[in-house]
Design brief:
The structure is a single chain. The chain has three helices and no strands. It has one domain. The protein is mostly helical. Helices cover 74% and strands 0% of the residues.
């Protein structure tokens, strides 16, 4: 287990987080870890979308299907690794 300290300078956000956690009988650290995991996923999805948009805009040779599948496997492995890391927070 790795530890980090999060300082919330926004008092309203801090209060809302505490209330949310209490209402749902959850620990704040679990909510924060889940939110960070979602944020990482969002960032990866945005990068993938940008890459896809750029690739579609490019003219040029076709990429072999086997190469595309291999690159997607690597991308999925990286996402799984990030998900595992975020679940340990």
């Amino acid at each position: 287990m790795k530890k980090i300290t999060v300082i919330l300078e926004d008092e309203q956000l801090y209060t809302a987080l505490k209330v949310h956690a209490a209402k749902r009988n959850r620990r704040i650290k679990d909510i924060v870890a889940e939110a960070l995991g979602d944020w990482i996923q969002f960032q990866e999805d945005a990068e993938d979308a940008a890459f896809a948009k750029e690739a579609l805009a490019e003219a040029g040779e076709n990429i072999p299907w086997e190469q595309v599948k291999q690159e997607m496997r690597l991308s999925l492995k990286a996402r799984e690794f990030a998900k595992n890391v975020s679940s340990r927070v």
